[in-house]
Amino acid sequence: MTRSPLLRIAAIGGGLLALGLLPLALQRVSRGEYYLHVLTLVLLYAYLSTAWNILGGYAGQHSLGHGIFLGLGAYTSTLLFSRFGVTPWLGMWAGAVLAGAVGAFIGFLCFRYGLRGPYFALATIAIAEAMRYVVSNIPYLGGARGLEVVWKGHNPAIFQFSGKAWYYYIALLLAAGCLAISAWLQRSRLGYWMVAVRENEDAAAALGVDLVRTKVLATVVSAVLTALGGTFYAQYFTFVNPSSVFGEGPSVQILLYSIIGGLGTAWGSAIGALVLVPIAEFTRARLGGTFAGVHLLIYGAILMLVMLFMPQGIMGLIRRAASRTRLRRQEGRP
Amino acid sequence: MAPFSLGPLRMRKMSTSLLAQAAVNGLFVGGVFALISIGLTLIWGVMRIINFAHGEFLMIGMYIAYFAVVRGGLDPYLTLLVTIPALFLIGALIFWGTIRPVLTAPSMNQILLTVGLSLVLQNLALVFFKADVLFAQTPYGKMNYHIGGVVIEMPKLLAFVGSILAASLLYWLLQSTDLGRAIRAASQNSRAAQLMGIHVRQTYLIAFGIGSACLGVAASLMIPFYYVSPTVGLFFGTIAFVIVVLGGMGNFLGALVAGIIIGLTESLGAAILPGSLARVFTFAIFVLFLLFRPTGIFGRRQG
User: Fold this and answer.
1) How many domains does chain B have?
2) How far away is chain A from the Cα of B98, in angstroms, using its nearest Cα?
3) How many CB pairs below 8 A link A and B?
4) Is B189 left (phi over 0), alpha (psi -120 to 50) or beta?
5) Model pLDDT for residues A84-133, shown as the tens digit of each residue
6) Where are the domains of chain A?
7) How many CB atoms lie within 10 A of CB B228?
8) ipTM value
9) Nearest residue, CB atoms, A311 vs list B109, B126, B242
10) What is the value of pTM for the model shown?
């Protein structure tokens, strides 16, 4: 980790430049389109997971139903586009507002009565499952088959592009923005409140932190960001159905990268996505045809292994290694 | 897919007999729900772990029962001799291998571990058995009795009776045997239990095995009237969580009562609302309970 702000800015700028030039380089590689697709997924999941981490990592409230917000974003923009012709660029904000309101509602109801730990996790799962059943049964919303984002030709004004690079750049923008918000939050007053609530609710309350307000705000920020990602999800896959957003799979996937990268750290989720999404995507491409669900099998196995052997995630490993080197240096050994 | 829907009866007009039919089916199925949930609530009560793979254990039990019937030619109710020990062993093994190391970890780590386990088991089943829906044809499948306009389906009646018997047996075991006393002692205060000479880890292992064995019973009892698929556990697992919260987490009798309430809700809801929309009732009850009475029906009100 760099300590000097100048170095930090240079590192981030250099990284962004490299990521920005990547599609140009990939044009010259065979199967470059496919790698670009995998990279876009890495960015999308880095984004979603970073958004989850604000509530789950910073504030310590583990939502197991973030598919609720992913689905609200995806469904709102897609519905507005297919039924009313509203461009998804506007629809995504409608979805974000709706998700924020629903997040505030869920957060307020749960945290008002002090639902903690496993109870909050159960409540979010139940609400996501209920959403899945409700949406599956409303023909206007496409029922169980879902909604399609009809292809109307390349037109940036309606969020439709013929080249994969466009989606990649949007995903890059989203991920970079979310990381910036997340890093900024970590040093903000709200961020400190959230961490205080996570570490010890009673102590935080004694020091004057408004528990309910902090947790509800964390839920809203996380929900709004997740919903924006939901619109990208729908536009990129041109399709949304109840189980692909409200199901157990997507909800687990969203939190998985944070857990593996390192819960409650600004960069952990992105690192988790960078490591895991390609593994999952390549195995899906290899084995998904013959063995459906093999990627979920891998997610589950990785989740178990991480919980058993490295519950602090990759960032935890890095930190431990760093402190070990520091110790060694202090002791004057090479 | 509306599990436990009333089939051809749905075509009839809404009437008292239709509702009576739904109530009877709901009661029968509620008994099985209760047994499944008792397994979950026992595990939670003893070691404070929510086993998110509970439904998947049931799925495994149903596959074992299915193959015992279809390949082994066993009577579905004789498969109990296979599924009970098998599920006990599977539960004990999984406890030993994966749950035991995280017993003292934060509760979220335990939840994520069992969520991972459920994904692994569910998708392993998908890899091995494909997404096919299997149904075991048995002589019991068509045994129906008409009592005053209401059809009593034999397999469902037997499942109800069997579930209640199994639950009573387990209740007796917990209340009146040394093993049961050890389990209850470990659940109330594991340290004190240890000081009294109870091997707590071993007691946990047995309790986890018993909680899983409940699913073996439920699996065999359901095989004559319920289909098997890799995702069947998802439905029963979620329903079991609802029931356990409703009954008060760790409350044995609460799970029994709540199981029957949810069975009736599901069945009556399906008679009134189209499609699987009835499930919304169940989840609404769940969310309302979580919000206003997280300690369950019989629990004391939280301040």
Assistant:
1) 1
2) 7
3) 130
4) beta
5) 989 999 999 999 999 999 999 999 888 887 777 777 888 888 889 888 88
6) 1-30, 37-330
7) 24
8) 0.83
9) B109
10) 0.85
